[in-house]
Amino acid sequence: MGNGFFEVPIAVNEPIKSYAPGSPERKEVLDTYKKMYDTKVEVPLFINGKELKTKDTSTMSPPHDHKHILGTYHKATKKNIEEAISTSLEARKKWAAMPWQQRAAIFLRAAELIAGPYRAKINAATMLAQSKNIYQAEIDAACELIDFLRYNVQYMTEIYAEQPESTSSAWNRIEYRPLEGFIYAITPFNFTAIAGNLPSSAALMGNVVLWKPSDSQVYSAKVILDVFREAGVPAGVINMVMGDPVMITETVLASPDFSGIHFTGSTHVFKDIWKNIGVNIHNYKTYPRIVGETGGKDFIVAHKTSNPKQVATAMSRGAFEFQGQKCSAASRCYISESIWKDVKNDLVADISSFKMGSPEDMSNFITAVIHEGSFDKLAKYIDAAKKDKNVEIIAGGNYDKSKGYFIEPTVIVVKDPKYTTMCTELFGPVLTVYVFEDKKWEETLHLVDETSEYALTGAVFSEDRYALEEAVKILENAAGNFYINDKPTGAVVGQQPFGGARASGTNDKAGSKLNLYRWISPRMVKETFVSPTDYRYPFLG
Ligand code: NAD
Prior knowledge:
Elements: H1 24-37, E1 41-43, E2 45-47, E3 50-52, E4 57-60, E5 71-74, H2 78-95, H3 100-115, H4 119-130, H5 134-161, E6 170-178, E7 182-186, H6 192-204, E8 209-212, H7 218-231, E9 238-240, H8 245-253, E10 258-264, H9 267-279, E11 289-293, E12 298-302, H10 308-320, E13 330-336, H11 337-353, H12 372-387, E14 391-395, E15 399-400, E16 406-407, E17 410-414, H13 420-423, E18 430-436, H14 441-451, E19 454-455, E20 457-461, H15 465-474, E21 481-484, E22 501-502, H16 513-517, E23 520-528
Bound molecules: nicotinamide-adenine-dinucleotide.
């Protein structure tokens, strides 16, 4: 029995380690990388606290070294999914009734396990599975996931503390119940932190979760699962399943107990899921919560007064870190013609200094794109640009998939601001630039607003306050995360809650209270101390 109004540790952002030459963390992560590279792993399904092997498996390979096999993972049958749902509903009975401080302790412990004993392993797994360089792995798999876990615990207590007013005759209380049923979490390949956050944020609020990681991230998802298990997440609370996404999703959506989806991935997949939820709506016991963070076509727009070197750096980092495979990555830029020459020189100089190769060689800034499908798609767009007389490739343009899926960071300059690569999400190291006349600032801002269906991130550069103010107003609905004189990537939990609207998602801001509200169903309890005994009001005379 724990009586008391407990306070959780104040959340702070996990400091980013440097991995500079000679640092102990650099040696540890490289040793771990080598050991993991040489060891084959087998990733079973994880249902009701038990590992489950099936007859159907797939192999896992590093994108930068695709002939090397890291191991295999097992794929679920429909029966496995049905079993996962029924065992989680059983687990829900105890988990939903668990005092919040016990749930908090589990996920705070998970954060500390990642910060300490699992740090090198989760970073090395992310370098191997998703080809992140060490810095990209550290800010994602270690720091961001730790931050999600710590801040969500703090936000949970802040939500629970929000209570209505009461009077001397009646006490009003709100109980923040978990949703009735189970939550389905579908996670993307590109962030280990998102893979950890989508199931754990809903579980923290007392829900049970069926988690389906991306096929391309299973290797690092396994490390997250190991952390959750060691931290003490009870059996059935988070089940992890891999396999055919269509079969798994259809099975989940057919369950009357489906009560919410926590999705991150591409727009068309999310829209199809939304449609199928609609088709099944009469079968559900409760209206499912639909939370999805999806695609982006993120912009940088630079006014004639902006500093060319700052704009070029925002483009180099914002478009090419992690090979542009961030939903927030800059992929279309609008640059004022009077600064373009300087921006171009700096940008091309930056790109020609990038080294590309395996993340094991820490001097590589760029590594491979995630898989062959992505490689082929990017190569197709680059080839089309090469053939088009109206566009010019000023950097990159080459690719090679003999050892890994390597695409050179590529910059395309277009005359038509509606050229296909200005509008379509490519999700790779391809940046398209449109140069506009200095006098057409306002017109260009409207163009930025109207060019894409997405509204995830965007950045504006200017030294002129009036120009900035105009951009802030005209681009009000063009981005959920809007940056002034900064690159559009790198949101930090607790500082810049992340998400966008339009075709970019439901904008429920991962890593904030707003997201956690989606996983609870408040119950209002009014208790009257002395109940009336006569129905007649005084006005009745
Ligand atoms: P994806 O849509 O291919 O896959 C995401 C997840 O959906 C995976 O687990 C996949 O197996 C599953 N999936 C695929 N097809 C499905 C189907 N028919 N039914 C059910 N599930 C299905 O996306 P990805 O390549 O892993 O990630 C890249 C995309 O994610 C980009 O569009 C990017 O912008 C987006 N993203 C958005 C955010 C954000 O916060 N807005 C963050 C990260 C990634």
